[in-house]
Design brief:
Shape: globular
Largest sheet: none
Subcellular location: Cell membrane
Distance between the termini: 24 Å
Number of strands: 0
CATH architecture: Up-down Bundle
Radius of gyration: 21 Å
CATH class: Mainly Alpha
GO molecular function, one term: transmembrane transporter activity
GO cellular component, one term: plasma membrane
InterPro entries: AA/rel_permease1, APC_superfamily, TAT_signal
Helix content: over 70%
Number of helices: 18
Protein name: Transporter
């Protein structure tokens, strides 16, 4: 095994789109509607539009940066190159720590849909190990598995849409009363946008795999735009059907399985258990893509001595960051066994928005010839990230600040230790 070889460029446009879709069409599409409806009520669609706009602005910035810096690491690399070591570190730290917790939550979510409670943790551990093994076989295996998962989930979502549309055509529009403003007003709408944003955020996985994409300057922006466009259209249709068929009140009161309720209300009750299985498959797809993204970001940070150098090891045959993948998988397994994170990963949401904030600010520093979209779009994306952060629940914000404080303190200690050792220590770098 060697420590410094580059990753192999094996992913084409279809592969990159599949990984992006697997990241975005995760378990969130099956559950995010309930808390979003509780916050925004009948104005759920307004929250969706706001989330989609922020996601579009962030995707524009990410695509331009990925074309200029086609390396592993995503916003960590962009922040480091354009803004300095500290912004890059904070983006990478937020992503690695937050998304490691998200992986544990995705594994537990998939297991909860598939097996009784007593078997959830063993099955979640098994899922992590199997998908980590898929990633270790090479990025093309990851892309093929992601494509299969996406096809299954899209098929089920398509059946839900068809069944609901047929049910509406037969029975007509139910009377849910006149739509009223949400109890929390515009704050509730923005909070729903913050929740819905994370159903879009997976397109960044395409950027974190930038070192493995063929013709990255052309492929990455196209893949991000294609994946995001598909997801926005899909979510818009689902949001409209949920509001029309179930109504805002029933949607907000759902038992966290709104698409199963939608299928049952359409008269296709047999589809409800199929939706449950699809939710588990979608969670596994998100887990697969997250494992790959965290591994590549850890690789990039290890190359810059922000994480232990051993994590920069690349397998000479499969060309994957095998040590980083194994360490990440082990950390997820520990979290699955020790803590139930499904209701306690608010700091992950905080970390994602901080990650995209760094990307947008980095895009603002690109020279004019590097811009394929107006500069104001990156500024709007940065502003949107800040707005969505302040609308997150207070525990999520406090948890996120605590995670970043721990990372910053650790880096300060290591930096000072490296300076005391002088240029011979850690290659003269922190």
């Amino acid at each position: 095994m060697t420590d410094r070889p580059a990753l192999a460029r094996r992913l084409g446009l279809r592969d990159a789109v599949a990984i992006g879709l697997a990241s975005m069409i995760g378990a969130g599409v099956f559950a995010v509607w309930v808390p979003a409806a509780r916050a925004a009520g009948a104005w759920l669609v307004v929250g969706l539009v706001a989330a989609a706009f922020v996601a579009f602005a962030n995707a524009s910035s990410t695509g331009r940066l990925a074309a200029r810096y086609p390396e592993s690491g995503g916003a960590y690399r962009y922040g480091r190159e354009r803004l300095g070591e500290w912004p890059g570190f904070l983006a990478g730290w937020g992503f690695v720590v937050g998304k490691t917790a998200s992986c544990a939550a995705m594994a537990l979510t998939a297991a909860a849909y598939l097996v009784p409670a007593a078997w959830e943790k063993p099955v979640a551990v098994l899922a992590v190990l199997v998908l980590a093994g898929v990633n270790l076989l090479g990025v093309t295996r990851t892309a093929r598995t992601a494509a299969i998962i996406v096809a299954v989930v899209l098929l089920v979502l398509g059946l839900v849409i068809v069944g609901s549309t047929v049910g509406l055509a037969r029975a007509g529009l139910p009377d849910h009363g006149a739509p009223s403003a949400p109890d929390l007003g515009w704050y509730g709408v923005l909070q729903s946008a913050g929740l819905l944003f994370f159903a879009f955020a997976g397109y960044a996985r395409i950027a974190t795999l930038g070192e493995e994409v063929r013709d990255p300057a052309r492929t990455i922006p196209r893949a991000i735009a294609t994946a995001l466009g598909i997801v926005v259209a899909l979510y818009a249709v689902l949001a409209a059907l949920l509001l029309l068929v179930l109504g805002p009140a029933a949607l907000a009161a759902s038992d966290d399985a709104p698409l199963a309720d939608l299928a049952a209300a359409s008269g296709w009750a047999w589809l409800a258990p199929v939706v449950a299985v699809a939710a588990a498959v979608a969670a596994l797809g998100a887990l697969l893509a997250l494992l790959a993204g965290i591994g590549r970001t850890s690789l990039a940070m290890a190359r810059d001595h922000e994480l232990p150098g051993r994590l920069a090891s690349v397998h000479p045959r499969t060309h994957v960051p095998w040590v980083a993948e194994l360490v990440v998988a082990a950390a997820i397994v520990v979290l699955v066994l020790v803590v139930d994170l499904r209701g306690a990963i608010g700091f992950s949401s905080f970390g994602v928005l901080a990650y995209y904030l760094v990307a947008n600010i980095a895009a603002l520093t690109l020279p004019k010839e590097g811009h394929r979209a107006p500069r104001w779009l990156s500024a709007a994306g940065a502003f949107g990230c800040v707005v969505l952060v302040v609308t997150l629940p207070v525990p999520a914000v406090l948890g996120g600040l605590a995670v970043f404080a721990v990372g910053a303190a650790n880096r300060l200690v290591r930096t000072r230790a490296a300076k005391r050792r002088g240029p011979q220590g850690a290659d003269g770098r922190p």
